[in-house]
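Lecture notes, unit on binding sites. The following record was shown on slide 14. It pairs a sequence with zinc ion.
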Amino acid sequence: MDSCGCSISEDTINGGGKSKGQGLSGACPTNGVIGKKVDTQTVKAILALPLNLLTSDAYRFCADPDCSTVYYSEDGQQLFDEADLRERVYQKHADDKEISICYCFRHTVGNIGSEIAESGKSTVVAEITAGIKAGQCACDIRNPQGDCCLGNVRALVKDLSN
Ligand SMILES: [Zn+2]
């Protein structure tokens, strides 16, 4: 079994959930945008805080770069921003060359950009795909978005190759 769902889930977080949902269930209390559900295991893995602080068993991820909140409980009572986390979040700093885009194999936006600038192409998608096939990825506990980075990486490579 592919426990992180890498081979099937390649959609980018940025693609969906942009509709405003102020006050709706599932909306980020900070900006009112509906966030994607994340496994509690992801929140536990990424949080730098003592886990006995967790008050909910259902959390969502806010991918909006302009919103300081990263995780929030389904009931809106609990918020975590980047200062509470062990990782900086790609979606919040997509323009930062130092930011990780692939948390399993440690590729950064800058590394991928340099490779494309030097060689005109990128081997990163093939490398990540090989790592997934070899069972070496752990997106559910390493990537703050809680699932595979490949959609984000593909989008970045396409963007930088144009
Ligand atoms: Zn938010």
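Take-home: Residues 28, 30-31, 33, 62, 64, 67, 69 surround zinc ion (CB under 6 Å).
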